[in-house]
Amino acid sequence: MSSHQPYSFFKSVEKSFDKAAKFTSFDPGILEQIKACNSVYQMRFPLKRDDGSVEVIEAYRVQHSHHKAPCKGGIRFSDEVNQDEVMALASLMTYKCAIVNVPFGGGKGGIKINPKKYSVYELEKITRRYTSELVKKNFIGPGIDVPAPDYGTGSREMAWIVDTYASLKPGEIDAAGCVTGKPVTQGGVRGRTEATGLGVFFGIREVCNMPDVMKKLGLEMGIKGKTVVVQGIGNVGYHCAKFFRENGATVICIAEHDGAVYNPAGLHEEELIQFRNKNGTILNFPGSTTLPKNSDALELECDILIPAALENVINGDNAQRVKAKIIGEAANGPCTPEADEVFAQKGILCVPDMYLNAGGVTVSYFEWLKNLSHVRYGRMEKRFTENQNARILGQMEDLTGKKVDADERAYIMHGADEVDLVHSGLEETMITATREIMEIWNNNPNIPDMRTAAYVNAINKVATSYGELGIFP
Ligand code: NAD
Which residue's alpha carbon is nearest to atom 30 within ligand 1? Predict the structure, then answer.
């Protein structure tokens, strides 16, 4: 519980849920069942440190909902981990997966450590022991519960998890599907790194392609020509900036922890990263004006504002000064409930984190499917498609007597690789999710914002799936 919040994180998720549940007509008991965390596993195990001392490690795995199997959600390594936080994050995963039609229940794991204070060898021992504790209690497996990276963990930890799991389950042919976010050499999937930023782009692009929404906001249709501000140039922010720029938007400002750079003619994210790698800061990037306060970026005149760094950055204090027409919540929880109220008043459209940043879990789903099918995406059809395209193109050229240029030829001939199929699946997912949420919002004008409409969508889907299990009516 933070000093600003009168209630816990889990309670605040329940409150958002209750706000949306009023717009559904499900039995109160079913709504209670959806909100509840089904299983909470709290564990303690010893770690022998490099200096020979023994430390007790506190860790959790929460399975919020079993309405679909397996459960899915990241593992976080942080000093701040506690049961309430893991429960809240697991429930958010249930709703997120439901919204983007990924057939998993929500889960989340956490180990209460600051990974910077441990050697790589100690981190490996902690991760492997955590995995074997999960195996002992049947809390991990391709059909049970499938972790992924989160704050403080990455593909290295996922490789340790899959190795431990496989060694404890000899002969389990689907063992690689026990965790996602693995290195590509260990059964990971191509396209995971850019997935969240690309998903944000697809979601916002879909909103910008809706004539009624653009009319209400007083904006032209499409991404081309829109001005964009990005806060945070880490993994998510970098890829957001890249995809918006490549599709004709102008990224006029990028903010980092130590300030922001502004150039109305447009910034190039790759050049900015190269500059930061050399100078240790983005400030004074050639051709740009430096804004000393990173929060100034949030208040610039622009069409689209993408907070992609931290939580609670747009709140009751500064929401009134936000001039963007659209806010795309790439980060988790960048806007507070007080900010939502201001946006509703000012007619700002806030596209919610709950689904907008679901690119990571969507591509995790594709990785899991790849692991279960034991074949790389594109392997079977790539060559066939290329041969067929060559034949069609040859016929067209013979019939017309004209030849297409080399770039166009390469595009037409190309058969889909793994990364093409992953991007295409992500595009389909984000377009469908955006349309579903907008339809719910359009059909119920009393729903105050897109966030609540997204929750309503999640509740409808989870409740319906309980119905399909025969739990109600
Ligand atoms: P990251 O650590 O790669 O990047 C965060 C960036 O924000 C860093 O460059 C950091 O210097 C910068 N930053 C820190 N404080 C700032 C401030 N006050 N103003 C401006 N910039 C600041 O993290 P990430 O993976 O890009 O994640 C960013 C956000 O997106 C987080 O909220 C995360 O939970 C969320 N998210 C990430 C993913 C994913 O796949 N990586 C998926 C869903 C949600």
Answer: 331
CA distance 87 to 15: 14
Pocket test for ligand 1, best of 236, 281, 306, 430 (most atoms within 8 A of CB): 236
Instruction: Please tell me the distance from the alpha carbon of residue 170 to that of residue 39, in angstroms, as a whole number.
Output: 27
Q: How far apart are CA 93 and CA 233, in angstroms?
A: 24
* Other residues' Cβ atoms within 10 Å of the Cβ of residue 44: 9
CA atoms within a 13 Å half-sphere pointing along the CA-CB vector of 306: 37
Contact 266, 242 (CB under 8 A): no
Distance CA 270, CA 192 (A): 19
Alpha helix stretches (DSSP H) within 299-413: 337-346, 353-356, 359-373, 382-400, 406-413
Q: What does the alpha-carbon distance between residue 196 and residue 42 come to, in Å, rounded to a whole number?
A: 30
Q: Would you write out the chain's pLDDT as a tens digit for each of its 473 residues?
A: 444 556 788 998 998 899 999 999 999 999 999 999 999 999 999 999 999 999 999 999 999 999 999 999 999 999 999 999 999 999 999 999 999 999 999 999 999 999 999 999 999 999 999 999 999 999 999 999 999 999 999 999 999 999 999 999 999 999 999 999 999 999 999 999 999 999 999 999 999 999 999 999 999 999 999 999 999 999 999 999 999 999 999 999 999 999 999 999 999 999 999 999 999 999 999 999 999 898 999 999 999 999 999 888 999 999 999 999 999 999 988 999 899 999 999 999 999 999 999 999 999 999 999 999 999 999 999 999 999 999 999 999 999 999 999 999 999 999 999 999 999 999 999 999 999 999 999 999 999 999 999 999 999 999 998 877 666 65
Parallel/antiparallel/unpaired status of strands 71-77 and 145-149 = parallel
* Ligand 1 environment, Cβ below 6 A: 196, 231-237, 255-257, 294, 308-310, 330-332, 357, 360
Residues noted as catalytic:
108
**Domains, in order of start, for the chain:** 39-186 (3.40.50.10860), 189-381+416-473 (3.40.50.720)
